[in-house]
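Quick check before the chapter quiz. The format below is the same one you will see on the exam, so make sure you can read both the input and the output lines.
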Amino acid sequence: MIISPTDSSIAPARSSHAGRTLASGPGSSPGIRSETALWALGRSAGLPPELAIFSGEIDDAILHESALRAGTLGVGGEAVLIGQGHVSEEAYYERLAEALGVRLAAREEDFAVTLDWRAALRTGVAPLQGAAWLFAPRGEALRLLIERMPLPRHSHRAAIASPSGFRDLMNAASGAAMVREASQGLALVSPDLSAHDGSTRTQRVVLAILVGAFTVGTLFGGAIWSAVCAAFGVCAMVAVSLRLLAFWCGWSFKPKPMPLLPDADLPSYTILIALYREAAVAPRLVAALDALDYPAEKLDVLFAVEESDHETAAALVHQSSRLRRYIVRVPEGRPRTKPRALNFALAMAQGTFTVIFDAEDQPEPDQLRRAATVFAREDDRVACLQAALAIDNHRDGWLTRLFAIDYAGLFDVFNLGLARLGVPLPLGGTSNHFRTKVLRQVGGWDAWNVTEDADLGVRLARLGYSTKSLESTTWEEAPAGLKNWFAQRRRWMKGWMQTLLTHTRHPRQLVAELGPARAASVIALLAANTLGPLIGSAFMAYVLYDMAAGDLLAPRPFAHVLSDLFWIVLALSGLASIFLISFAGMTRRGLWRSAPYLLLRPVHMLLMTLAAWAALIELFHRPFHWAKTEHGLARSSLRSARAKEPS
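Here is the expected output.
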């Protein structure tokens, strides 16, 4: 990140081959211009140096109020001046360069050929051609630069850039390397943990054997069919048992009131949002971010927008906001996926923590404060918090009604239960809060996996980290049209298949990293999300038909009776796990008016089956294609309706 407010080290500013050191006081530098008389006046008035340079240009009352707020929040005075809108970021750093007697860096600035862009983005210090240095200081580092490190000679050899300008320069100088890292970073460093290479030869052989056994068993029956059915039954029972256990643990959970951290104790936070063709929702998105109950001085908002998407970028620029925002223009490249864009922007994140939101999201105002409070209570192995997602436009149609019920069951009950059981949590695609350092250490997101969220949740667990649920809600827009819904579900199904293949390449290693029980739980969850839709509808229909019109309940030998009983129990417990979680979620979200729409669940399951088979076909010929979900089409808003209700 750019130099953090607590980073007092700017040692890279010393040029080992320049043969000079920096002066220790402002008065000793002929590079400081005559305007520093005002600076001295500000210092004599008790202002910190980063504010004193504006003495005589900004009202002293504002400067003193900014100094007081900076001390309360534990940030640099420049963060308050900029965050409160007293001066723009560009104007502040232009004045800083003027006070130091150095130049303000231009967009076309030449960097040294050996530029280490990762280190530069972390420290805010980068080498220029000709043994000169570029600084983008913040907080304590900025203060030290003003007080002790003006260049006494050759000040033209150094340059100052604002944090946003520094990002621009880094993108221009190292954009190609950053793009490669965003696309190939995980695939090159840990190929076994990336979906880039698809399935292994062993997996393909095993899959061929299973398909062959299923085909032979279907045609000829006998022992092969019995073995196939037994294997499927055991796997299904593990998944159903896990769902029922997670239901019980999630439903019995009662949250306790939690005092939230005050402003002074809050860490810096990066809000990272990847957008593509989202101009229509830009106003609502910016308004939702403005509503967050978090000091603007501690927020770093990054919009990752594809370079070719000029409409979305323009829509974001035209929205006024209390927050400093930076639009990261993601260069063209392959694959064009959300995780690739997130990886590219992650390199520029400055916050101690990073949260991912989607374009249509409306998080509860205190969500970041809640997440920071939970992180402060937990040890460093808790790397991620998943907030609950809820459907805002559930009244738009029967698909959105069922979507809302599914989300209520998943995030308000099932995920809570998984977290309490210690089972690795497949993340949702948004409202994931991360320790930024850990997110970088694990390789960020897999650019080649189209459900990068689920994959990252499993990968975090495999690398020794844990994920917990966060008691906060983010409201989302669900697709109401069948075409939009089908495209989204097809992508999700394909991504779960990719994730299952990725994390079962080396089963022994998976068990060694997670332990037998957690490894089995992960496989069961991923298999249920893939095999369930593929064959679940046919299985349920077959069992119900055999019970009503076949010989499933006819008098048979005892061994056959036990087998029949197993399948009946499996079918009924599977249905029970679905409806119990749904009913519990509906209760917690107050969605009982949508209960009659559960009668359409069989139609919904059939559509899920069609989406799963379409995903399986697409996995072979377009594995990395990202089906875009259109947003901004909602016709209703539960959140707005509840806000208008009398209290």
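If your answer matched, good. Residues 1-35 have pLDDT under 50 and may be disordered.
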